[in-house]
Specification:
This protein is mostly helical. It has two helices and no strands. It has one domain (about 1-45). One of its GO terms (cellular component) is mitochondrial intermembrane space. It comes from Gopherus evgoodei. Pfam families: DUF4535 (PF15054).
């Protein structure tokens, strides 16, 4: 049974890679790393207090 589960795990991993490569080549998938950096920058900008102290 464990050998069969290992086979299914490897098959799922390989199939996921193939599907991921197909999607990345044929569809406009957003760059998640860039989106995450933009989100972090927005959060940091909102955390900072206003700089003009009058």
């Amino acid at each position: 049974i464990l050998n069969f589960l290992g086979f299914l795990t490897n098959l799922g991993f390989a199939l996921g890679n193939v599907v991921g490569m197909y999607l990345a080549q044929n569809y406009d998938i957003p760059d998640l790393a860039k989106k995450l950096e933009d989100f972090k920058r927005d959060v940091e900008a909102k955390k900072k207090p206003p700089s003009d102290k009058s």
